[in-house]
Amino acid sequence: MPSMEDRRVLDLPLERAWKIGKNSFEILPQLMPEYFESIDLEEGDGGPGSVFVLTMGPGGRGRVVRERVDMRDDDRHKLKHTTIEGGDPRYSSFSSSIKYESGPYRNTTIRTWTAKYTPAPGVWAPPPEDLKGLSEKITETLHNYAAENPDYCAY
């Protein structure tokens, strides 16, 4: 299964970066309405087995996407989601994981996003650079919001 990765160093302590990342569904529609009209928890409590419904805005081509949480590990600071319905039709399967770990400097965090995907049968599908770009934009938006709002997801 092909994969791609993006790593970023964030100027945030690990625990705060993790808290922001795992709770991003609560604020992304407010911060990025052009991509996320709404993100609703359809099943579960946000942990493994939960299902989120993402109603995409114009930048997300107006699709409704259902994602299942496969893993949320608070001790290892890892999340994994799999698209189960409404994803990019170029791919028959798509999953992404995000891992947060201590960064190279005090109060920094390394965020690693990894996507695994399978092109749909009979379709030429390039690597999902647009989804990688969206992940980068989400990270940048959340990071900027955290910098401007020091109480957001503070300990």
UniProtKB/TrEMBL annotation:
GO terms for molecular function: protein phosphatase inhibitor activity. The keyword Transcription regulation does not apply. It comes from the Eukaryota. Coiled coil: none annotated. GO terms for biological process: abscisic acid-activated signaling pathway. GO terms for cellular component: cytoplasm; nucleus. It is found in: Cytoplasm; Nucleus. Signal peptide: none annotated. Belongs to the BetVI family. Belongs to the PYR/PYL/RCAR abscisic acid intracellular receptor family. This is Bet v I/Major latex protein domain-containing protein. The lineage of its organism: Eukaryota, Viridiplantae, Streptophyta, Embryophyta, Bryophyta.
